[in-house]
Design a protein that fits this description.
By secondary structure, this protein is α/β, with parallel strands linked by helices. The protein is built from twelve helices and eight strands. The mean pLDDT is 97. The chain binds flavin mononucleotide (FMN).
């Protein structure tokens, strides 16, 4: 296992690692590093009111990086500054998102793996705009015949970035197949390994490959305590239902019941996955709009007193 808990990272997961989820993860794993969901530089700079995370404050969130995406270096710098002022401990730039809305139409995310010059301009502008560290998160490359992530790491290093998170798939792979990270080559920046890391032996594997940290994404779904288990700062929970109820409290505090309850359904599905009668339970959950009714059915399913 890595020596320092801050070498274990919670990955950015859009629609999942929001403030309520991070608050829960933090209780189990006080010292890990976390990255927010990606935030559009346009939305942030223009202060879009319908995007609640544009107004998050990070002062009380421990070691947290805020992730931005965009293709305009100036706006990315402005966005980085806003997040620094909101208490981010570092800025992470998304250079791996394969979703067409981001990578093709907006020329951001994974597209920057194709345009290292623009990637460098964005990194430089962010670094110029803030006093906190700047990192990038990327993939092996655009597709099988363009696996040039090492070149992008060198660009990032030349611009002054502090580290890189690397997902062991190409943009073309999306999330299919297995994440395959090579032995870490000799590079000028620390590299955090990401992709399909779900248990301690996966962490040890990437450590043996020479990586400087491990970033965990989907392994946390329905298991916000997972990073705490890795760090030895918690044990397997006795009653998952109590955690589900606490998560629901945080979601409703943050979004309100009307928006929060429909958003919470996916979490309930992950928490209950593989349990007896979970399919039936999910059908019921998906129809409930009332907070008290939702609490009752969660209590009944997990036998919470
Ligand atoms: C639902 C979902 C949302 C994601 N959102 C983001 C994001 O906002 N920013 C980002 O850099 N990567 C995002 N990713 C990619 C993850 O951070 C991670 O690189 C990928 O899931 C592989 O790691 P894992 O196997 O541990 O999940 C997302 C992945 C999923 C499945």
């Amino acid at each position: 296992m890595f020596k320092n808990h801050n070498q274990i990272f919670a990955a950015p997961l859009a629609g999942i690692t929001d403030k309520p989820f991070r608050k829960l993860v933090r209780q189990f794993a006080p010292d890990v590093s976390m990255v927010t969901e990606m935030i559009s530089c346009h939305s942030l700079v223009e202060g879009h009111k319908n995007c609640i995370r544009n107004f998050d404050n990070y002062e009380d969130e421990g070691n947290i990086g805020t992730q931005i995406f965009g293709a305009d270096p100036f706006l990315m710098g402005q966005a980085a500054k806003i997040l620094q002022d909101a208490g981010a401990k570092w800025i992470d730039i998304n250079m791996g998102c394969p979703v067409p809305k981001v990578a093709t139409r907006a020329g951001a995310g994974a597209f920057l793996m194709k345009d290292h010059k623009l990637a460098g301009q964005i990194i430089s502008e962010c670094i110029k705009s803030v006093q906190i560290p700047v990192s990038i998160k990327t993939r092996l490359g655009w597709d099988e015949s363009h696996k040039d992530w090492e070149d992008l790491v060198r660009v990032a290093a030349d611009c002054g970035a502090s580290f890189v998170s690397l997902h062991g798939r190409t943009r073309a792979q999306g999330y299919s197949g297995n994440s395959r990270l090579p032995q870490k080559p000799n590079l000028p920046l620390p590299i955090i390994a990401n992709g399909d890391i779900k248990n301690i032996s996966d962490i040890e594997h990437v450590q043996n490959l020479g990586y400087d940290g491990a970033m965990i994404g989907r392994g946390m779904l329905g298991k916000p305590w997972l990073l705490g288990l890795f760090c030895g700062t918690c044990t397997e929970p006795d009653n998952i239902g109590e955690i589900v109820l606490k998560h629901l409290d945080y979601v409703i505090d943050y979004y309100g019941a009307k928006v929060g309850i429909p958003m919470f359904r996916k979490h309930v599905a992950w928490y209950s996955s593989g349990m007896k009668n979970s399919a039936q339970f999910r059908i019921q959950i998906n129809q409930i709009l009332d907070e008290q009714e939702l609490r009752k059915i969660i209590k009944d399913f997990w036998s919470v007193c």
